[in-house]
Amino acid sequence: MALGTVDSGTESLTLDTPVDLASTTTAGIYVCQYNLTNLANGDIIRLYATAKVLTGDTEEIVFEGIYANSLGASPIVQSPPIVSMFSLSMMVEQTDGTGRSVPWALIRIAEY
Question: Which runs of E-coded beta strand occur in 13-58?
């Protein structure tokens, strides 16, 4: 798999329903970007990633960020670089407010 965008789209969220935006089993270092422009006061969105340490492991949370209300001048957020050897899933869940649409992109920034 080449470096660059692995997958992208716009997800329409339903409250308290986790969504697997993108998953990969290709080894690499990844960053997921999210455009939270559509958040309004009262909205809370949870962004998180799950990964395995060993092939037989269960995926567990490796990154989590909680974003609330409108973000003003900085509506684009991204995960830290995440190293994945065996599997990686990028997740989003809206936990409060009105269901919003979130544009996102999973980018592979390095391979090994």
Answer: 19-24, 28-35, 44-51
